[in-house]
Amino acid sequence: MKNYLICSSKNWFSNKFPYKSFKNKNFYFISRKSQLNRKFLSKLKPEYVFFVHWSWIVPNNITDSYHCILFHPGPLPYGRGGSPIQNLILKKFEYVQFNALKMVEKLDAGPIYFRKKLSLNGSLSEIFTRMRKITENLIWKIIKAKKINPTFQKGKTYYFKRRKPEDSEILKGESIKLIFDKIRCVDGLDYPRAFLNLGNKKIEFTKANLYNNKIEANVIIKIKK
Description:
The chain has 225 residues and is an alpha/beta fold. It has helices at 38-44, 60-63, 84-90, 124-144, 176-184, and strands at residues 3-7, 26-30, 46-51, 68-73, 78-81, 95-102, 112-119, 158-160, 194-198, 201-211, 214-223.
């Protein structure tokens, strides 16, 4: 039986979820950088190595030796780089393609095997739920395919910068829509929340809803350290 490895440093796609479709296959999950090493891979001999939200650069001696596939949202080659979901939302994208592509030395530059449409509506947690289903579907599509003819990326390349916690500060003069997008695009998992500074206090926002040009949200008020 062939082995398959899934590398995910975020819990939205991990072995904690009951993937019934994976039970009859030899799927292995890792979540830490130290686990991805030549000794482990040479013993496992994976048919495919899938990288789902992996936070570290993968060494060339791994990508050159194994069939490595990563998943990335956006109209590639536009949108390579860090924090793609947040950056796409703040660029006012509502729907994008979610890509399964070959991992190569250059960041997010490999040929694309398959794409699926992804909605960027709702909170980050809701988007991750959609991504989890799409990722599972694409993994099976790749495994079952007898032959895959990847499509090389075409068009103007644009790289996103990885967003920092301070980028989520709500600033004076920002529109209601921008504030709403700032809140929802980091409202999930362990991401630092969007916030407003008020003197010695920090106000954090979650679970935002927008209607009639108004925002309703849950609020946490903290004293700055």
